[in-house]
Thiamine biosynthesis protein ThiS (Secundilactobacillus collinoides DSM 20515 = JCM 1123), 66 residues
Amino acid sequence: MVIVNGTEEQQVAGQTITAFLTAREAPIDNIVVELNGEIIHRPQFDDKQLTENDRVELISFVGGGR
């Protein structure tokens, strides 16, 4: 089990961050990933794997303004 934005997710342990984000159709270019309190930089997404009991926070940037 991996906790993603406060919600338990099953069957994501073992996936790379890139695979996880792609499966969620997340905007990889506009997202910040925090893994267990550490910001993971985009070049690490292909190498960093999620493991059991990880805590992931996904923060998306949305443009806008006046």
User: Anything to note?
Assistant: Residues 12 and 20 are 7 Å apart (CA to CA).
